[in-house]
Amino acid sequence: MSSHQTGxxxxxxxxxxxxxxxxxxxxxxxPIYHRWISEAAxxxxxxxxxxxxxxxxxxxVLIIAFEGNYAYDETGGxxxxxxxxxxxxxxxxxxxxxxxxxKSLLAGQRFEQDAALGGKVGxxxxxxxxxxxxxxxxxxxxxxxxxxxxxVTALATRLFGAGKFRVERASPxxxxxxxxxxxxxxxxxxxxxxxxxx
Amino acid sequence: xxxxxxxxxxxxxxxxxxxxxxxxxxIELKKQGKVDDKLFQEARLRRGSYGQRxxxxxxxxxxxxxxxxxxxxxxxxxxxxxxxxxxMQRIKLTFGGFTPEQMEVHADIAEEYSDAIVHITxxxxxxxxxxxxxxxxxxxxxxxxxxxxxxxxxxxSVRNVTACPKAGCCGGEVFDVSPYAIACARxxxxxxxxQDFGRKFKVAFSGCPDQGCAYTGFHDLGxxxxxxxxxxxxxxxxxxxxxxxxxxxxxxxxxxxAEFVPEDEIxxxxxxxxxxxxxxxxxxxxxxARIKFLVAAWGIEKFRAEVEAERxxxxxxxxxxxxxxxxxxxxxxxxxxxxxxxxxxxxxxxxDWRATNVKPQKHNGYVIATVKLPLGDITSWQLRQxxxxxxxxxxxxxxxxxxxxxxxxxxxxxxxxELYRELQRVGLAASGANTIEDVVSCPGTDTCKLGIASSxxxxxxxxxxxxxxxxxxxxxxRALRIHTSGCFNxxxxxxxxxxxxxxxxxxxxxxxxxxxxxxxxxRRDHNAREFGQTFGPVPSKRVPEFIDRLTxxxxxxxxxxxxxxxxxxxxxxxxxxxxxxELGQVPPRSIDRTLYSxxxxxxxxxxxxxxxxxxxxxxxxxxxxxxxxAEQMHYEAQxxxxxxxxxxxxxxxxxxxVLAAKGLVYHENQDVPIQPDTIVAEFRxxxxxxxxxxxxxxxxxxxxxxxxxxxxxxxxxSVEAAxxxxxxxxxxxxxxxxxxxxxxxxxxxxxxETAPAATENA
Lengths: 198, 762
Description:
The complex is a heterodimer. Chain A is an alpha+beta fold. Chain A has one domain (about 10-195). Chain A has helices at about 30-40, 95-115, 140-160, 190-195; strands at about 10-20, 45-50, 60-65, 70-75, 80-85, 120-125, 125-130, 165-170, 180-185. In chain A, strands 1, 2, 3, 4, 5, 6, 7, 8 and 9 form a nine-stranded antiparallel β-sheet that branches. In chain A, strand 4 and strand 5 (about 80-85) form a beta hairpin. Chain B is of the alpha+beta class. In chain B, the strands form seven sheets. A five-stranded antiparallel β-sheet of chain B has the order 1-6-8-7-16. In chain B, strands 9-10-11-12-13 form a five-stranded mixed β-sheet. Chain B has a five-stranded mixed β-sheet with strand order 19-20-21-22-23. Chain B has 22 helices and 25 strands. Chain B starts with a helix and ends in a 19-residue tail after the last helix. Chain B has five domains: about 1-160, no CATH class; about 170-330, Sulfite Reductase Hemoprotein, domain 1, CATH 3.30.413; about 350-425, Alpha-Beta Plaits, CATH 3.30.70; about 440-605, Sulfite Reductase Hemoprotein, domain 1; about 620-745, Nucleotidyltransferases  domain 2 (Four Helix Bundle (Hemerythrin (Met), subunit A), Up-down Bundle), CATH 1.20.120. Chain B is globular. In chain B, helix 7 packs across helix 9 (about 300-315) and helix 20 packs antiparallel against helix 21 (about 705-710). Helix content of chain B is about 40%, strand content about 15%. The relative contact order of chain B is 0.09. Classes of the chains: A alpha+beta, B alpha+beta. Chains A and B meet through helix 1 and strand 2 of A and helix 1, helix 2, helix 4, strand 16 and helix 11 of B.
């Protein structure tokens, strides 16, 4: 059996809602993403840019990588920095989740620091969403939630400290992806969060 | 841990489940280096798994060509395609039928394996991009549970069977062609006479000869509904049959093969056409391998005579007519009673949407509403919402269109305001369907290996511009249609646009500048009766200006109610040339760099990312496929033996030998029955007794292995016997490969022609 069919949850994503100081034209991201690909600015094997600004509440503008996709996405009507994995990850679920969170934070750091964006984009920091992108290994039901919730809590504890956040399930609609929303008492900087995942 | 295969067991037809299992085995065998690149490429193409841009591991970043550092560079999905590079998955929707359940599965697989976008193609298919090959078996299983297959969505095979999206609801149709399109798709899919083509083969059904919906005029095989007087005042159903149409670099109008073929004859005639094409169509020069070239070379009279002669030879098949009993039962039921629309319904935005997106239906109180999709794209979330909306308003009767939209049939007219509000809520209520705002585009350089220029970038830009101006546009201009293709292969069907464009490049100032060649003035009625004329190229960034000025010129110079195609025909090339000449002047980079990059792609333009097109695939004969399948069965037999089931191992190994023998017999006799006795008897005469099976330089009697096992009717099964027959099977299959290589060997000095690449949608 291929590693793609193991039945364990490897396809996981993290979205950090964004805070825009000034409205961002998503098309401005295209040259920036191309540069990031040339500079290998993010951890994965970066392949190409995909642009979906023409669809409302869509995936926005993405960098397609071998291991997963990075996006500045608009799903749910809210913009945010997203990373989701498409290949098997190492370690247990908590470790996999931490790896995905780390990549999403590194992308967030790029958005905050890239000179071409002029500090327009940052992470709101008061929330993050963690989702299962695999309806077999992590379905949006009680079983899936029982699997995901402890791992998300462990991740949030690592990032924000025990008791400094609240985790809730986003939607009970079994058709939608199983998603945990982590509400954070006090936002932290990306550098701090990354140091806690090191 | 449970797999999708376990979870979905029993929820799809057995044959489909087995096919997908076999495909997954092929993937595993390929990873072990046990399948040839070319064979695997054609095998995956025939399952709709297609290559994508940069999958050769090279990408130009605007400065230089760079290596994409994939780790497993030696592992390939095809001769030029790296295993780890994500690809495209094409999915067939027969006649564009798209149920709510199918939408929901599409939504899920797009999220999990792609990028949460489902793309509708110009042949009523769907496509997912950036999909990893190892995810494709599960993706296919999930589709199979809702009655969808991607089988033969690519490769040299019968592609998606398309039809008018209004079929069954159109007031102008002769009869509803939907059940015929379904039956045809089922009959031809996997049919053994449709496996030996040099290129793809596209079939379309039209309900009438007058309108432009199904466009049988540019299909390899087109059926146009017709009737003739039958007994006792009844009408006999049938079709005018057209053959040999196609777009591509040079479009061909289909020729009339027969004015009326009765419904019970359309499949034997189709089968005869497939045989003639498989036998006489070009195989080596891929650029001349479509059936249109054969029809053109022979002339329709000779082609017709050959088809008629072949038709007489084909053995009777119950499948030709067994489906006819189901035709009268075909019907669609609405979810709500039909009702009139209140006179004062809706606001101005609703009225604009209704004017462009809603068309009458032949049933009182019902209409057809078009959901306009920008560039043919819809998100997973939207698709789930649309599934719910469709369940509520039109009982799930949706179809994709060749204009890359989705139509909702059987909508009660009185429900339109509520439907509009629901569509608005999910971002699907854009007006302007099938107008100048609704630009049709192929993937172009976004994802296609053959793309020269950014057709989607151009299309998105034009859509935005036209949308902003829609209210102020003259109706004669707003009604025009724009199609943009990334190259000459016509995947956007630019030859049937009023304003068509296809990507080319020009060298200027020692650099390459993206251009679009202009194709103007097509007539879409009568199933695309006249293709547009090709004019000169315009720099990509100047296409919007070209459209503005040409349409202004049209409005200023048109005579009375003169249509745009009539105007273009009247002014001819001379009338358009001054504008093209003016806009064609490209200043040096030092003055204007903007023309040296493409729409929505800041890299300095170059064409070095163009790869080798896969849609043609490789020509792999039915015999080669049989031999490959035999090899795979041998592998399965080994697995059975390893698992201790020696009886199953023994029988599977024997079946592998029979299949290999069948492949060789089929090479000479397309009508070989499937019974082992007949296959073995024919193999004996044709290959053993003639001495052709044995290598003349090493005459070992491998054929005896087959005969001995075949004749062993009272076999005593044992581990030892199974092991022996497995060994023998391996030798037999190897010998069959060698035999096939010898009998198809060409002289050593025969030239191998390299064909121009070609694509799927045209």
